[in-house]
């Protein structure tokens, strides 16, 4: 018996689940999501979960800002729990980034984002245990924080099912069928799901999957490490999240006594996303621990708890591709988030649903994320040499 779907989403990370939900919310009754393993088993399950708005590119900033509003009111807007926790978020400029830093904050404010440049004394009140002597400029987002990436994906998936969508786990898509320049189906083993719309949201597997369909995008799977340090809670009971351009680290509190720490310049290319070391290296632990201790000296007395490594899907300009494919009606690409995906995922689902159902994204102008920009040489160049805060 033929399987029919109005739209098929390939990839069951938080992006795919958000897209599936938004399609179902817009009235698509028989949307299908295909996941090669389990929901969130790729990059989503290893996300740091940070939710903040500091970007040098307006499209990222606007997506993050509108996503924050959804995270803050997730149960009311979507339904279910995303685990959002408001901690506030400090961003520390490097010596060579002050002019760009002020310009970026002004751009963010013009987009409606609640952020501002604050004095060292104000920052010291917010984070009294931080060392601030090397900070030429500090920005603060009072309403930023973090959320649970796996719980967010699961909540989107649950609501999508309730709205009539279906999810097929351990069902990898093996190919996209095209006839007359139009998508006609998705191959799953010996079966074919007949459909006129397919969204490729396959994260680190995107380049491999797209190449077999003649689509060559500069996507690279890169390995990134994160550690959890058990802080001395008697001296450092709590602290805000932060992005430290000077020391090239980002951090946030985790639970009652842990601090999650990642980096902005250490990465490793991965040839096969199926095979990579999933634990942090000793050299990484030592290096990043020393960096966070420069900003929070009390972290010298922390204890190592655990750590992990996950994969980014990286592009040359650290910006994603969200676009429809020219020449193949009904084919859409959503990948290449370069470590920014989770915090943008609520709005990405909205925007991709608009692409599929309306022909164009209307909530935010995403023309700078078009796939043709690489051939055109019109990249979104970051203002900082710090990948996490592009």
What does it look like?
With 390 residues, this protein is of the alpha/beta class. It has two domains: 3-46 and 150-218 and 317-389, FAD/NAD(P)-binding domain (3-Layer(bba) Sandwich), CATH 3.50.50.60; 86-144 and 220-314, D-Amino Acid Oxidase, subunit A, domain 2 (D-Amino Acid Oxidase, Chain A, domain 2, 2-Layer Sandwich), CATH 3.30.9. It contains ten helices and 22 strands. Strands 6, 7, 8, 15, 16, 17, 18, 19 and 20 form a nine-stranded mixed beta sheet that branches. Strands 10-3-2-14-22-21 form a six-stranded mixed beta sheet, with helices on one face. Strand 21 (321-324) and strand 22 (331-335) form a beta hairpin. Helix 2 packs across helix 9. The longest helix has 18 residues, at 341-358. It starts with a strand and ends in a 14-residue tail after the last helix. The mean pLDDT is 95.
CATH architecture descriptor of the largest domain: 3-Layer(bba) Sandwich
- Number-wise, the strands total 22
What would you give as the CATH superfamily of the largest domain?
FAD/NAD(P)-binding domain
Any idea how many domains? 2
What summary fits the major beta sheet? 9 strands, mixed
Beta strand %: 15-25%
CATH fold assignment of the largest domain? FAD/NAD(P)-binding domain
- Arithmetic mean of pLDDT: 95
Low-confidence stretches: none
Under CATH at level 1, the class of the largest domain stands as Alpha Beta
**Approximate shape:** globular
Q: What does the radius of gyration come to? A: 21 Å
Measured as a percent range, the helix fraction is: 25-40%
SS element count, helices: 10
End-to-end CA span = 48 Å
What structural class results from the helix and strand content?
A: alpha/beta
